[in-house]
Amino acid sequence: MSAPTLDRPTDEAALQRQFEATIAADRRVEPRDWMPEGYRRTLIRQIAQHAHSEIIGMQPEGDWLLAAPSLRRKAILLAKVQDEAGHGMYLYSAAETLGADRADLTDKLIEKKQKYSSIFNYPTLTYADVGVIGWLVDGAAICNQVPLCRSSYGPYARAMIRVCKEESFHQRQGYELLMTMMRGTPEQRAMVQDAVDRWWWPSLMMFGPPDDDSPNSAQSMAWGIKRHSNDELRQRYVDMTVPQAEFLGVTLPDPELRLDPDTGRHRFGAIDWSEFKAVLAGNGPCNDERIARRRAARDDNAWVTEAATAYAEKHAGAVA
Amino acid sequence: MSTDVTAEGGHGAVPTGPEVPTTPAPSVSRRDWPLYEVFVRGKRGLNHVHVGSLHAPDDEMAVHAARDVYTRRNEGVSIWVVKAADITASSPDEKDPMFAPSGDKVYRHPTFYEIPENVPHM
């Protein structure tokens, strides 16, 4: 559906007031409503990059599909990776309601004009990484995504509800995998600890820079796109995860991590933001590899798309 | 940090500042598969409900793709797909004239009628 065309002269100020009233009343904005250009652009950026993260996120775990230790684990991992593709599709669908073009968004990803989450630029070195990604990376994603189910933009919020329902499976399969390994040999337990050591800090970075270094957050909060600050979400994640680590029997690699008895919340050490900036700027361990594979998927499979188009054109009308 | 990076990019912080382009550029070399809207009946006895959209080369492929994208966990027993271009919708700008006729007909609602409380089963 194209953007609405107006038959009568528009009173932009009245439309703006109507939009603000919708936001103030915590009602949802729907695709054909008038919305400020800044709101539309902020949403396209965020939803597109969220979609890209889901699509690129298939790669680190996909690397273990052919090396999963049992048919059961392989079936679970396949289902999980397929879900990530599905999540990407829900989100591209939401972005398109704002006037973005799906194929164009993929081009922007491949040309590195739009980003995806920096977490997917780290390699999965052992099979334990599959478990730790489910537990920590998807656990952090759940913290981010649950509040998005109440985002002010209707199609985004509805996509997130679907995503969150499936994300719980992702986290639980990861944690169960790790519990199984922790019951195994000393080597298997060491493998889990090593994976936790490598993924813990990057998972904290998933929440973005500290609030005082997040200049435009206030606007996103005012628009109801964003519901909680970066630091608030990070704190929630740490408080949720520490007891899970204790139960599992692993050590989180932060000597300063401790429970503050006054607040009941956990204090943790300083995050190395220079690493985050470097990875985001394209200098993480796997940035080039991830994009190269996405580019190959687009280009090498172009003939399939063309064949399907040719088939559809040949049979157009015949079915009707 | 020069740009705004927000946590709420789902799987992690992504830049959301104005340097990230959002305007669609026409794709040159590729096909444009039509956009289909997807409706799923969750179970028998319920209406089909809109769940999202996808691109497909034809109707049949759209149904197959809709099954993979929207019903991986028994979310549906029936799927409808329709080309988005074939949908006619009321315009949000006509909100008042379009729906006003039902707004002032309060007598169409049961609460309009005052019935004494001791009348049974009403």
Automatic annotation (TrEMBL), chain A:
GO terms for biological process: phenylacetate catabolic process. InterPro entries: Aromatic_CoA_ox/epox, Ferritin-like, Ferritin-like_SF, PaaA, PaaA_PaaC. One of its GO terms (molecular function) is phenylacetyl-CoA 1,2-epoxidase activity. It comes from the Bacteria. One of its GO terms (cellular component) is cytosol. NCBIfam families: PA_CoA_Oxy1 (TIGR02156). This is Ring-1,2-phenylacetyl-CoA epoxidase subunit PaaA. It comes from Geodermatophilus obscurus.
Automatic annotation (TrEMBL), chain B:
Coiled coil: none annotated. Pfam families: PaaB. Residues 1-29 are annotated as: Disordered. This is Ring-1,2-phenylacetyl-CoA epoxidase subunit PaaB. It comes from Geodermatophilus obscurus.
